[in-house]
Automatic annotation (TrEMBL):
Principal place of residence: membrane
Lipid bilayer topology: Multi-pass membrane protein
Record-given protein name: Na+/H+ antiporter NhaC-like C-terminal domain-containing protein
Gene Ontology CC terms, in alphabetical order: plasma membrane
Keywords for this protein: Cell membrane, Membrane, Transmembrane, Transmembrane helix
Subcellular locations according to the entry: Cell membrane
Domain of life: Bacteria
Membrane-crossing residue ranges in chain numbering: 6-21, 28-48, 60-78, 99-121, 141-168, 188-210, 251-284, 304-321, 341-363, 375-395, 430-450
Record-linked PANTHER family: NA+/H+ ANTIPORTER-RELATED (PTHR43478), NA+_H+ ANTIPORTER NHAC-LIKE C-TERMINAL DOMAIN-CONTAINING PROTEIN (PTHR43478:SF1)
Species whose genome carries this gene: Schaedlerella arabinosiphila
Domain Na+/H+ antiporter NhaC-like C-terminal: 150-448
Amino acid sequence: MDQGLIAIIITVCIIIGAIKTRRTVECMLLGSLVAAFFAFQGNFLAQWCVVLQEMLAEEVWVFLVCLLFGALIAQLTASRGSFGFSKYLAKICSSDKKTFLTTYIMGILIFVDDYLNVLSIGACMKKIYDDRKLPRESLAYVLNSTGAPVCVLLPISTWAVFYANLFFEQESVKAMGVTSPMAAYLKAVPFCFYPIITLAFVFLFAVGAMPKLGPMKKAFRRVEETGKVYSDFSRKFNHATVYDQDTDGNIWYFLIPMGVLVGLAVATGDILVSVVVALVVCFVLYVPRKVLTVDEFMNNTIQGFSDMLPVLTMLLVTFVLKDICGKMGMTEYIVEKTEPLLFPAIFPAMVFALGAVLAFTTGSDWGMSSIITPIVFPLGSVIGANPVLIMAAVISGGTFGSHACFYSDATLLAAQSAGIDSMEHALSQLPYNVIACVLAIAGFMITGAVM
């Protein structure tokens, strides 16, 4: 049996097992070991450890960003700066609709990076959602749906820079006569159907025009019947959630570090440096004013690291599984089997579907895009498909993978930020993802036929 097919079967089994057991890490870990056995045979355990070390080294930037964000959130919480900001926002969020719309607008405004978007907004909105008795699943949905979808639609973001430079290397894109990578990217933005539809769905959800579906409906019913904003299964993610209603926080203890963080991220495009500087600002702001002692500041930093360990564990196992499945040729197998089905009119829709499936099964959006881009653009050029729609299809497919996959970094961080289990978040937003995906395919089918 082809190893690419074996990798697909293993991935499908992991997804089914995680949904059935709610033991995502365990299923991913077991799946990665099984994949290693087929990929490396008798030496699989040693090779699995080698891949583990390689992923730690290659993805160290992601781990550092997550750890330092955890530390920053811990400092903002300990200084009560986030509570001060939450109390200010609570005056605006006087209804469920205003609460959702405030989260939605903040998600659009913080467009530089999806990590920055999800983690920073979750830190200040979680308490408001709890006070208003809104399920955490709804917070995670809004956070995740205004992360990557916003980042891909605005040219001043890490996603836009990545995709623009990736596409500009393709001959069919240069043949359009564009003068720069960003000029090419901007041509594709109006046709990025999945992120556009997703943002429209979130707005409708916020104003109450989108019905509550499936697990999301059950989450709202749980709150009505029990008052629990998160399920018993997610209790382990909220052991440190304590809200002191009698103590006012200084809003500037939140706004100054966050202002520095966002400002530097916009100016430099370096999220890692920005969060380090924000932590330094926290130290200078809190310690001399005796808001926190040096010992408290360091203990909070370590606690913030600790709070991020569950999501980092999942990310590491995800990276290992993705790398081993890549070595087994899963992506190449799927591309090879779908190539005979490609025709000019439906090519953009097929590219979107292919990218969505690959990004969902691998948990890798940028990785998927990097692999299929050199394949789909020459193919599209040969059969006469529109390169603008191909760009939009690749972007949309990557966005779907980031948004919908239950072990993608965006989904894990949204769940972490909202304080719920990643599988509960993934399943509660899945109906909306699927509907948006179907509509996006229809959009690419129509535009592929007329352009």
